[in-house]
Design goal:
By secondary structure, the protein is of the alpha+beta class. Helices cover 17% and strands 24% of the residues. The two termini are 26 Å apart. The chain binds a DNA duplex through strand 3, strand 4 and helix 5.
DNA sequence: CGGCTGATCGTG
DNA sequence: ACGATCAGCCGA
């Protein structure tokens, strides 16, 4: 039995709304910074091979279009890979990073404006989701030390995708209408609960590497 | 907790 | 070649 209490760092017991409604197009049709902050506390839902998994979103990053040196779309790089970032708000963008992990984003704004939010961390929204996340993480690395999962269940973009079985199969999905991949209402988050910092892993982005476009609870 | 390193492969 | 990363290992 894991010492799971430490995972609920800031999440008050019973504070998760059992049955939140799905976020509509208007939620995502805003700028990438607003959407990144607003997604904190919301619940990412995915139908996996083990059943439904729900994760409370607790860390996000904004990628702000063709002027952002940290973004895949910097200088108007519209390719087959980055195409989903150009689609309407609510579209998923899942790509392979470092040859072995997936990263998941949700496009913001409207068609043609490639702003997006990287989802970096979730915490299981219920015990059933926790059990499924642990199983999915364990299954990924057979020889892995089980201790290494612990409180690191989904605390990074790659780990989050493994824990919620998000792969490139889930790329370019409209999360406003998909029956199996979407976001719902969740915790009530007050502005003063939102922390901000520099984005991770984009040291090459010059001045943009210092923008405080990472948000977390 | 912080820093370092190898692993691994689709994309342009 | 190059990463919007991770796990394991090291030292403090």
């Amino acid at each position: 039995m894991a010492k799971s209490s430490t995972d609920y760092h800031y999440i008050r017991q019973s504070s998760v709304t059992a049955c939140g409604s799905r976020l509509p197009r208007e939620f995502f049709a805003r700028d990438g910074i607003t959407v990144a902050k607003e997604l904190l506390g919301k619940i990412l839902v995915h139908e996996t091979s083990l059943g439904t998994v729900r994760g409370i979103i607790t860390e996000t990053e904004s990628y702000m279009g063709e002027e952002d040196k940290g973004s895949h779309t910097y200088s108007g790089k519209r390719t087959e890979r980055t195409e989903p970032m150009y689609h309407q708000g609510g579209t998923s963008y899942v790509y392979l990073i470092y040859g072995m992990y997936s990263c998941m984003n949700i496009a913001a704004m409207t068609e043609g404006i490639p702003q997006a939010v990287l989802l970096r961390k979730v915490e299981p929204a219920d015990e059933e989701s926790r059990a499924r996340m642990e199983q999915l993480r364990r299954a990924k690395k057979p020889g892995q030390n089980p201790e290494s999962i612990g409180r690191h269940l989904a605390d990074g973009p790659g780990k989050m995708c493994i824990a919620m079985e998000i792969t490139r199969q889930d790329n370019d999905i409209d999360m406003v209408t998909s029956p199996s991949f979407y976001v719902t209402e969740g915790l009530t988050v007050l502005p003063e609960q939102i922390r901000e910092g520099k984005r991770i892993g984009i040291d090459y982005a010059e001045e943009a590497a210092d923008y405080l476009w990472r948000f977390y609870l």
